[in-house]
Specification:
CATH superfamily of the largest domain: FAD/NAD(P)-binding domain
Largest sheet: 8 strands, mixed
CATH architecture of the largest domain: 3-Layer(bba) Sandwich
Bound molecules: flavin-adenine dinucleotide
Number of domains: 3
Shape: globular
Radius of gyration: 24 Å
Strand content: 15-25%
CATH topology of the largest domain: FAD/NAD(P)-binding domain
Helix content: 25-40%
Distance between the termini: 59 Å
Structural class: alpha+beta
Mean pLDDT: 94
Number of strands: 22
Number of helices: 18
């Protein structure tokens, strides 16, 4: 006999989007149940950098950073065009700051301004250099008690010593730990805390970035008594007279039929690990790597599709939100992926080349734009000899010691294991390095010589590396004349193979501004909501700035929950203030 449950709202998926929807609905007085496919909360969000792009947010304003939703609207119109999904973007801009304040005022979900963190197309009108991005405040995982193990950990590539999280702000003190007493004692405090943690916990409990976001949402849900069923995937929704009134959940003890008077929120994280959807939606060659949680198998999208929902690849334009990734070999065996988001590509003395050894992109563009350039150059490639998938990041000995490369940390202490594992390749000359990758040696030498000429004058005549705020932000400000261009001249030379990987997907269920799923006639399916990566991205395949997926994920989860509760979402007029 299947079990029966009665709630107001059922939320499928305990990532940032699902947990936000559940928390807001609970705060609005609804009885809420979350069903989660894995044994942990957090999803991909737990492993993310945790940044939210919230134009006009009050946290940044209070810290003295000037921004407005009106400027962001101008930027988005220029970047995406005003034809597709503008109504949703308007709702997003109107609600973003208020939704964040609502969470801060009513729960333990708290944020801090990122300060300077340029938009990814910082040369387009309306782009901001600072004030738009916020990050979750660090969280003490010990507060979760025994439920700490219910929180999905970050990827090993993001942790030091097998379990210690560090934030961007920690890096200067850790790298420069022997340069000043203040740095040394800061680094010593971090290590002491971590050592203490490891006596009692499987990993460090000083949680940062996306792990802090997931932990804060989870902690708040616990405080409000919201129940989460683990290992309990949603399998199907039940509809009566066209209205979604509940769902079937699968568990090891059999099915549970949930009657959900106010509806069902699909927040199962998109289709990152669904081969059929990848083949249908993604560019060619279909990328083989995904950084999404392995549990994200397109279940929400499939459920919507079975109900006649509109899937929006044609509106999205592009189907994924990308990062260049290197394939790591993990200490205990197995493969991982390292996302080359911001630490190495923009630094002076690194180039990205294709199989001919030629550059094809400004290496310092955003991770998303870098991969879009891989696809574009690969599509134009006349043969395998000029293909860009994979491409290669190339640097010299001085660079790798100073800045690191992928999972090679600055200081370059861990090269031997990575060379042996084949993650990193080395050549005493550019020619031997090219041979190690099977790329054109003469082409690589020619490219490096031309690039070294650019380094001398500080101008990249081919791709303009170092010309935008974003480029320079991730470059090395102490390097002159251009913080992003330096010569590759000190043997040995090093390189990595780079593949496209999705950190999020853009194609999903079409919704209205209340996150209600639309059918093929663009009418809402009553009682069915989608948010996070199950909802088609409002950015139509563009990646305007840091936090492009978590920002809308949280804001539309808030809007979905408010709608289900029969309340108007808090909104602010879009003006220039
Ligand atoms: C390295 C990295 C860094 C990133 N940094 C950022 C960043 O700084 N800012 C940003 O905006 N984005 C970032 N992203 C992307 C971001 O993490 C995702 O877009 C975001 O987590 C999506 O949230 P979600 O709630 O939709 O899905 P998820 O976080 O993946 O959560 C989905 C949940 O649904 C569960 N689930 C799946 N199927 C079912 C089912 N049938 N029933 C019930 N539950 C189910 C999953 O187990 C999972 O727990 C990053 C991603 C990566 C990989």
């Amino acid at each position: 006999m299947a079990q029966e449950r009665e709630v107001d709202l059922l939320v499928a998926g305990a990532g940032p989007a699902g947990m936000t929807a559940a928390l807001v609905a609970s705060l609005q007085g609804l009885s809420v149940l979350i069903c989660e496919k894995s044994h942990q909360v957090g999803g991909t969000g737990s492993t993310s950098a945790g940044t939210l792009w919230i134009p006009g947010n009050h946290q940044s304003k209070r810290a003295g950073f000037d921004d407005s939703a009106a400027k962001a609207e101008e930027y988005l119109d220029a970047l995406i065009g005003s034809a597709a999904k503008r109504e949703l973007r308007t709702a997003y801009l109107q609600t973003g700051p208020a939704a964040i304040d609502y969470l801060e005022s009513n729960s333990e979900v708290k944020f801090a301004p990122c300060g300077r963190h340029p938009d990814y197309r910082s040369n387009i009108k309306g782009a901001a250099v600072s004030g738009r991005a916020i990050i979750p405040q660090p969280f003490d995982g010990r507060l979760l008690g025994a439920d700490f193990t219910r929180l999905r950990p970050p990827i090993p590539e993001y942790m030091l010593f097998g379990g210690m999280m560090i934030g961007k702000a920690d890096i200067p003190a850790l790298v420069g730990r022997f340069r000043s007493l203040a740095n040394f004692s800061y680094a010593a405090r971090l290590l002491a805390r971590y050592a203490g943690d490891r006596l009692r916990y499987p990993r460090g409990t000083r949680l940062m970035m996306g792990n802090a976001l997931a932990a804060r949402l989870f902690y708040s849900l616990k405080q409000h008594g919201v129940e989460i069923l683990f290992k309990a995937p949603i399998a199907a929704v039940a509809a009566q007279n066209g209205r979604v009134v509940g769902a079937t959940i699968e568990t090891a003890d059999g099915e549970i039929h949930v009657n959900a008077a106010k509806g069902v929120v699909l927040a199962t994280g998109g289709y990152g690990h669904n081969k059929t959807y990848r083949d249908a939606f993604m560019p060619r060659p279909v990328p083989v790597h995904s950084m999404a949680s392995e549990f994200n198998q397109g279940d929400g999208i499939a459920i919507g599709e079975r109900l006649g929902a509109r899937i929006a690849p044609e509106e999205s334009g592009h189907s994924g939100l990308w990062t260049p990734a290197s394939v790591t070999t993990r200490a205990g065996g197995g493969k991982g992926l390292y996302p080359h988001l911001l630490l190495d590509r923009a630094k002076p003395g690194l180039i990205a080349v294709n199989a001919r050894g030629e550059r094809f992109v400004n290496e310092a563009v955003s991770y998303h734009d870098f991969v879009e350039a891989m696809f574009a150059a690969n599509a134009k490639a006349s043969s395998n000899t000029s293909s860009c998938i994979p491409c290669y990041l190339i640097c010299d000995a001085r660079f790798i010691k100073k800045y690191g490369l992928g999972v090679v940390y600055p200081g370059a202490g861990n090269l031997r294991r990575l060379l042996q594992a084949g993650y990193l390749k080395r050549g005493n000359t550019l020619e031997t390095l090219a041979a190690a990758f099977g790329i054109d040696a003469a082409g690589l030498r020619q490219t490096v010589e031309r690039h070294n000429g650019f380094a001398r004058i500080g101008i990249d005549a081919d791709f303009g590396k170092g010309e935008t705020e974003l480029n320079r932000f991730n470059g090395d400000p102490s390097h002159e004349p251009n913080p992003c261009i330096g010569a590759l001249a000190t043997a040995p030379y090093y390189g990595l193979e780079i593949w496209p990987a999705d950190i999020a997907v853009s194609t999903g269920l079409s919704t209205d501004a209340h996150a209600r799923v639309l059918d093929n006639d663009r009418q809402p399916i009553p009682g069915l909501y989608a948010c996070g990566n199950d909802m088609a991205s409002i950015m139509c395949g563009a990646y305007p700035g840091p936090g492009t997926t978590l920002g809308p994920g949280v804001v539309f989860a808030y809007r979905a929950a408010m709608h289900a509760a029969g309340k108007a979402p808090l909104e602010e007029a879009i003006n220039g203030d």
